[in-house]
Design goal:
- This protein is about 45% helix and about 15% strand.
- By secondary structure, it is an alpha/beta fold.
- The protein has a single domain, classed as NAD(P)-binding Rossmann-like Domain (Rossmann fold), CATH 3.40.50.
């Protein structure tokens, strides 16, 4: 059964990792998926591998005008947007908190937080008008427990979680569900600092109840649930998918 049949989705940061896996899962379940990233050539290659239901559209989520052009183009082609996945993120500012500067602060907020704000502001009104829609924000367990030497990443992900709750309160009565996913360590390019090094990887896995390194597809299956009508009674929640890393007993 195709649980997203006839749905239209936008997935940001979809050229690799979690975003790509989410796009693949959505296409598998019948959706038309607009995959976004900065490089059109890369997106074209990904779309050719996923299939014709994946539409590649280059968009730098740090630029308001490109976000506006993206939403306009998708709306013009498909008529509506049923699902929005705010997945694009960066982590350019790892290091001691007192060494962070305003340029790094602004960049992290622009990509990790303001992009979601801008997209929701443009996409949600149409969802509210139709009385249905699902918005999924990809946060992190760093937004629930501060990651060492990662002040700005933790801060932006914590803010994204609160944004999720605030949107859910206001948009729920209009038929729009807003949820977040907080992955633990997932094997992606963004997190390779933590899993490529054997010592760091072992330390992480030793602290988890489930002893394997998380995979993008495991996050995609949760996103699929949140995107579909199977989660029709679920909003304002942050699903922690971390192999049990945050369990108090660990």
């Amino acid at each position: 059964m195709s649980i997203l049949k006839d749905k239209v989705a936008i997935v940001t940061g979809a050229s690799r990792g979690i975003g790509r896996s989410i796009a693949e899962a959505f296409v598998r379940e019948g959706a038309q998926v607009v995959i976004c990233g900065r490089k059109q050539e890369t997106l074209n290659e990904v779309a050719s591998e996923i299939g014709p239901a994946a539409r590649p559209v280059a968009c730098h989520v740090g630029k308001a005008e490109e976000i506006a052009a993206l939403v306009e183009a998708v709306t013009r082609e498909f008529g509506c947007i049923d699902i929005l996945v705010n997945n694009a993120a960066t982590n350019i500012a790892q290091g001691p908190c007192l060494e962070m500067d305003e340029g790094q602060f602004d960049k992290m907020v622009e990509i990790n937080l303001k992009s979601a704000f801008r997209l929701v502001k443009l996409v949600a009104p149409g969802m509210c008008q139709r009385g249905s829609g699902s918005i999924i924000n990809i946060a992190s367990i760093a937004g629930l427990r501060p990651q060492f030497h990662s002040l700005l990443y933790s801060m932006t992900k914590a803010a994204l979680i609160m944004m999720t709750k605030s949107y859910a309160v206001e948009l729920g009565p209009k038929g729009v569900r807003v949820n977040a996913i907080a992955p633990g360590l997932i094997q992606t390019a963004l997190s390779e600092y933590y899993w490529r090094d054997e010592e760091r990887r072992s330390k992480q896995l030793d602290a988890q109840a489930i002893k394997h390194l998380g995979q993008p597809a495991e996050i995609a299956e949760a996103a699929l649930l949140l995107a579909s009508d199977r989660s029709s009674y679920l909003t304002g929640q942050t699903l922690v998918i971390d192999g049990g890393y945050l369990l108090s007993s660990m």
